[in-house]
């Protein structure tokens, strides 16, 4: 009886902590959304109040869609994010398969080298990265952002996917080899379908920092033609006057792709996280 009561208390505390964390995480998003649909006076007078008939105003959205080239910013962010995620998943999965499947001299050293990439922020190499992009003529191109984000995401992808790929049955892979499948066929046809939850987890964890990043777009691609959503939102922030309606509207529009991606891959994401927890 005491064990059951202790377990119930512990479960209640865990759920209470999770609910508190969820409220803390969702509150800024909620505050941004409701204030993006109010007039300027209502934003400063009562920012916690939801829009009413008197305070409802979409001037921020009309400003964003009218003054700023938001469609181009959104397109640039979409291209950079999708291409970067595709490259991270492809190269990260291939590297994870090699490290988990084959035993060779330097296997552990290579895994440790990639793990260091998780611990050391890529921003520490900003000067060297900028010099390299200038030397290769990639400044103010989306390619520069794709290369940086791919290098940034591969270490985490290898770390997560290698653990999942070690759980794939060796008998299944050996059966494929007996049937005449090449290593590439085994990788693409047998292994990848079994690690889809982990792939979805990596995709979400890779997308969020890429989509929200301001540092590298500001340094590597600040031109009007290559601005991303986050950098493009800065045009409404001035030294003396800030158009908060437009800023909040731009941020609200920038949140939508992340929410859509989560709802699409939420089942795979939760499955991947819980599977990793069980391991």
Molecular structure report:
It is a single chain. By secondary structure, the protein is mainly alpha-helical. It folds into two domains: 3-57, no CATH class; 69-278, MetI-like fold, CATH 1.10.3720. Helix content is 76%, strand content 0%. It is built from 13 helices and no strands. Helix 1 runs antiparallel to helix 13, helix 3 packs across helix 13 (244-278) and helix 7 (142-165) runs antiparallel to helix 10. The longest helix has 35 residues, at 244-278. The chain is globular. It starts with a helix and ends with a helix. The mean pLDDT is 84.
* Secondary structure tally, helices: 13
**Topology as H/E string?**
HHHHHHHHHHHHH
Number of strands: 0
Radius of gyration: 23 Å
CATH fold call of the largest domain: MetI-like fold
Number of domains: 2
Largest sheet: none
InterPro entries: MetI-like, MetI-like_sf
Membrane topology: Multi-pass membrane protein
Organism: Shinella lacus
Main location: membrane
